[in-house]
Specification:
Layout lengths: L4 H15 L4 H40 L2
Amino acid sequence: MNLGFGEIVVIIIVGLFVFGPSKLPGFGKAAGQALHEFQKALQGKIDEEEEHHEQEKINDQSFHK
């Protein structure tokens, strides 16, 4: 999902109209924190998969000896 500059500006303007200028920074901070947590969880899952595949590779090599 790639957002261009114009699309981001439209989203910000709509946010200003809907939530008002005082609440918008709080929503931005919450969205940023949620995105950060999602990325950490996703990276953790990727790391688990890589570790699992490495362990399978080691097990296969020791089994075939």
